[in-house]
Specification:
This protein has 13 helices and 14 strands. The chain has 359 residues and is of the alpha/beta class.
Amino acid sequence: MAFSRIELRNFRCFEALTIDISSNSNLFYGKNGCGKTSILESIYVASCGRSFRTSNLEALIKNGSKSFKIRAYDDNTGSILEVNKTKSKAINIKINNSLVTISELARTFPSFSIDSKTFFYNDNAPDYRRKHLDRGLFIASPDYAKDWFGYFRGLKQRNAALKIGDISQAKAYDDALIDHGTKLNFLRENLVLEVKKIYADFVQTLEEHNKRARLFSEIDIYLKSGFNDKLGLEESLLQSNSADLKRKTTNQGPHKADIIFESKGLLIKDTFSRGEQKLLSILWSLSQNIYLEKFFKLSPILLLDDLSSELDAEMLDCFLPIIKYIENRFIFSNIVDSFNSKIDFSEQSFKKFHVEQLT
């Protein structure tokens, strides 16, 4: 499901605000400090129960108020979401008047935010890329969550045994790691394979508008499983016993996985400019969102704050034509509306909101 309307009460700078959201792309524009980021943040809170700006939800309550409230509607299903946060109390989330957990909320109204770390996806540690990959699968597949927790529970116990030098006790958890780890790796590989196809279609479309986009078609994207693929997980664990015992930790398995982006055999972080890396991150995130909608029947929202400040003029011109081909919700902000002259939106449901005129 995805929001078609959102209502805010005492959220950040807004005392009251109601917005009807397009099913495709939405632009919120206006000068700095008018509330563009706060609107995107409210959508994220309504989807995840947390903010992409702060870990302190009380900071989202408008000055002088005791609580904030978000109501969101899905016209397709008739579902109503309510998120309430009162000072000194835990966040309260209801869907159709029934209390739900944050995990249930994220699976019902999924959203993803492209932030500063996402822009430099390839500069971050492998752990960040694994989390970025896993979050979508967590939301889309309950089986994935079950295997993920099963794998990491076994891994924790195996590492505890290695720390005291008990290899026999450590090996007792190998079956759990092999069972759950093999399933994790299969789903991750399938995601990367399918997202690559969507990404390739995006880039091909961009090339038709701007030859500069050819740069992004020359990228090799693949999953490093974290173990020797030729040997398989079981044999890889067996052969690493001596190294595991010496280092007192498990060195082979999906917990070591990574997504690699290379161009002509070189890592993207070593060859792409900052603007090129940012655009690549946006295209990959959009492709992953479309994958979740296509294969898991979800309607994820992708949020991107302050588009033109994150892309230089050349990369912005390269990216803009893709907006009219995005079929699921893409919500972004910008200081000014400078897109009419560059994009023909006649074939797409595209809405623009001048934030300073909303209140």
